[in-house]
Design goal:
Blueprint: H1 2-22, H2 29-32, H3 45-72
């Protein structure tokens, strides 16, 4: 059980790092790649979905960390 949760934790952490790196600063990321016209000034649906997925993966990472802590305790 511990080994499976540790492998899952590594996969989730890699996914979280990739998702965070995909986020844009002010003019980079998805907005800088042409998905959002500069005249709109808002966030595109792709960036909104990226934020939602990042939050969900962050919650999974937190829960997995707590689970690993309790198994190792």
């Amino acid at each position: 059980m511990l080994a499976a949760l540790a492998v899952w934790h590594v996969l989730v952490s890699i996914a979280l790092v990739v998702l965070v790196l995909l986020h844009s600063g002010r003019d980079a990321g998805f907005g800088g790649m042409g998905f959002t016209p500069s005249s709109q000034g808002g966030t595109h649906i792709v960036e909104k979905n990226l934020t939602r997925v990042t939050v969900v993966i962050g919650i999974v990472f937190f829960a997995d960390t707590v689970g690993l802590f309790h198994l190792l305790k």
